Amino acid sequence: MKVLRNYGIGDVRVEQAELPITQNGEVLIKVHYAGICGSDLHIYRKGMFVQCLKETMGHECVGEVVSMDAGASLKAGDYVVCDPRVPCLNCSACKENAWNRCAHIGFIGEVRPGCFAEYMAVPVEKLIPVKEIRHLEWLTLTEPLAVALHLCRRAAVLFNDKVLIFGAGPIGLMAFLLLKYVFHINQITVMDLSDQRLSLAQALGANTIRTLKSSDQSSFDLVLETTGAPVCMGQAVGVAKSGGRISVVALYESKVAIDANQITEKELSVHGSSTYTTDELREAAQLIESGHLPLDKLITRIAPIEEAPILFEQLAKEAQDCKVLFQL
Q1: Are residues 244 and 286 in the same domain?
Q2: Which of 50, 114, 176, 319 is the most exposed place for a label (fewest CB within 10 A)?
Q3: Which phi-psi region, left, alpha or beta, contains residue 71 (left: φ > 0; alpha: ψ -120 to 50)?
């Protein structure tokens, strides 16, 4: 089978590999679509998160059950998405079943083989059955949609909030769609430097800006930081209203400098948002199955896995696409 393996910073290779041999309690999955996540680009650019090389990358996917243990709740032909998190199960958060806050959280594609492969072996308890919808590729967005859903929940969204979202990438635009269609928020502005991504945000119905104006200072009830650009986190404390909230889902490749005095003087609430709960992952799958959100517009490219090395090089330099999928 074909796999995409990480050999180090800037070095990903498409190779042939043997089909995985399932262990007790594992299910063999035929991967149909898999998505490139921002964390995959962190791995490519900086070598973040990975524990060993070479490793099969990827953690966002939809696939089909090929084989499983006798007595399993799934059957051959079932479509599934997976919970890709690999918690340590020993830290204080894990002992509270708060796996998303695990002190040593890992993901498939980082600490064990991932889904940029034609087949993968997955523990049955990590699989969520999904319906066979017309556009199966949409279900690849289940995991990042769960990230955006958890972000919105952590932000304690209020009906009359005026919201600024830093970033028109997949998480930022999924957060926008959730705020608009699920939380029914009307005043949402999306900021990004990419004209292509801003055009996509506008097509989805967002107000968009490229840069902040002096009038934007202290004007937003809620700020969502999804970019991982240190300058955006610094700007967030400036544009948040007195008594406002900042919710951060981004991961950063370098240290962040902020004016902490503004947090104190404006009594800002700053929340981190790490992955999602298992229930939110199921809820995200159900939202996609319902067709309630126009998520199809976020998939801007579907490519064969053979194009992965070129795509990673392009995306690491300039993020113009929104969500890129591999069809396997």
Answers
A1: no
A2: 50
A3: left
Interhelix angle 278-290/142-154, rounded to 10 degrees, is: 120
Structural domain boundaries enclosing 301: 2-144+275-327
List the beta bridge partners of residue 146: none
List 220's β-bridge partners, or say none: 240
Same domain assignment for residues 319 and 179:
no
Query: How far apart (Å, rounded) are the C-alpha atoms in residues 138 and 68?
Result: 25
What domain count does the chain have? 2
Q: Say if 11 falls within a structural domain.
A: yes
pLDDT digits (tens, 9 = 90+) for 118-134: 999 999 999 999 988 88
When pLDDT is averaged across residues 55-72 and rounded to a whole number, the result is 90
0.85 surpassed by pTM? yes
pLDDT digit string, tens, across residues 271-317:
999 999 999 999 999 999 999 999 999 999 999 999 999 999 999 98
CB 115 within 8 A of CB 63: yes
